[in-house]
Design goal:
Blueprint: E1 2-9, H1 16-30, E2 34-41, H2 43-52, E3 58-62, H3 75-82, E4 86-90, H4 95-109, E5 114-118, H5 125-128, H6 132-149, E6 152-155, H7 158-168, E7 173-175, E8 196-200, H8 209-222, E9 227-231, H9 239-249, E10 254-257, H10 262-270, E11 274-277, H11 287-293, E12 298-301, H12 308-311, E13 315-318, H13 322-338, H14 341-355, H15 358-373
């Protein structure tokens, strides 16, 4: 089976989506799959990100026009030349959807190739609420054709499956979670970790960082020896608003930092005592198992599908309301004082490695592709 991944940016600009595509494509290749990744050439890719890429062989193309459309005029010919059996489209609304729709039209009528779409959270109500006019135009231009020609959809959790069917009707959806690799950095002794809560991700209103900063006002007042650090890429200039909020609520204990990548990112997590994910909506949130692998407990919002944190005794799962976030943060700091936060981190690491290892995730994705190629619908 020949598999093509169609994506947007493959550089650090894509944040968690890059990590998912890199990890899954690499794991599929390691299992013997014939797979290639197609994406956008950007400055970060040319300035080192291509050298650190550990996924399947990647081919990138020059983008023209608005960045959010990702118009790559050479993508269609490259995809046709590769002759895949499965095209797996990662993300929607961009030009890659138009190419996938065109290929699926030819494939279904000729070679029998199948199109699979991973929305990556873009069909969640909160995500659909952003730029609705632009999305209506793109749907009419090409996205509806891609939806109509997709053989099946991939979701990373039950909520994303529900969101996909709420938007598209009774389509075939397979749930396969994202995977995680073990960190290569040495984990410090707990006593060497800073009294710090860290949040890592794209700086955007949907991530709920404004609520986390507001929640920190009481926490910082009661525990002035603790710090909150929010680090991530800032493509839309949202960091300025967060810094204003930090000045209002942070009491000098909140920092908005540039993004960290690779070992530096893992080290930031591993040297913190709690990871926070206050998002209004997340289809999966790969940063959660990545934090758990670092033996760092997690406070996640109910906007993300991580209720397992409570069942596995390695974190908190609360509404992304400032008051509820404050309560959970205070509970976590109390757990640290009682000596139980460290053991929660150890439990989380064991769970993440056993449940979300990339080889097992790739095996499940292979089975999904094989079912789609047979023309069978999932349960």
């Amino acid at each position: 089976m020949r598999i093509a991944f169609l994506a947007g940016h493959l550089s650090r600009r894509a944040s968690g989506v890059r990590q998912m595509i890199e990890g899954l494509s690499g794991a599929l290749a390691a299992r013997g799959a014939d797979i290639r990744v197609f994406g956008i050439a950007d400055e970060a890719w040319g300035n080192g990100d291509s050298e650190t890429w550990q996924g399947a062989p990647a081919e990138v193309f020059q983008r023209y026009g608005p960045a959010n459309l990702g118009f790559m005029p050479k993508l269609g010919a490259a995809l046709a030349a590769y002759k895949p059996d499965i095209v797996h489209l990662h993300g929607i609304w961009m030009y890659s959807s138009a190419v996938a729709a065109s290929w699926a039209g030819r494939g279904i009528n000729g070679s029998g190739g199948k199109l699979v779409i991973s929305p990556h959270g873009m069909l969640a109500p909160a995500a659909l609420a952003y730029s609705p006019t632009a999305k209506r135009i793109i749907r009419a231009a090409w996205q509806n054709r891609a939806f109509a020609r997709a053989a099946a959809y991939h979701a990373t959790a039950a909520q994303e499956e529900s969101d996909t069917r709420a938007f598209l009707g009774d389509v075939d959806v397979e749930i396969v979670p994202n995977g995680v690799a073990d960190t290569a950095i040495a984990r410090p002794e707990w006593s060497a970790r800073q009294k710090r809560v860290v949040a890592i991700g794209r700086l955007h209103p949907v991530k709920g960082y404004d609520r986390l900063i507001q929640a920190w006002e009481q926490v910082g007042a009661v525990h002035p020896d603790w710090r909150l650090e929010i680090a991530g890429p800032d493509p839309d200039g949202y960091a300025a608003q967060l810094r204003t909020l930090a000045g209002q609520y942070g009491g000098g204990t909140v920092t908005i930092s540039p993004p960290q990548f690779g070992a530096a990112r893992d080290a930031l997590i591993a040297h913190s005592r709690l990871f926070a994910l206050p998002s209004l909506t997340e289809n999966f949130a790969l940063t959660v198992p990545e934090a758990l692998v670092c033996a760092t407990p997690v406070l996640a919002s109910t906007g993300a599908p991580w209720q397992g944190l409570v069942a596995q005794e390695c974190g908190w799962w609360v509404d992304p309301d400032p008051a509820r976030l404050t309560d959970a943060l205070l509970q976590a700091i109390a757990a640290d004082a009682a000596g139980t936060l460290e053991s929660m981190g150890a439990k989380g690491r064991e769970w993440a490695l056993s449940e979300f290892g990339w080889d097992g995730i790739a095996a499940r994705m292979e089975a999904f592709y094989e079912r789609v190629m047979r023309g069978e619908r999932g349960a």
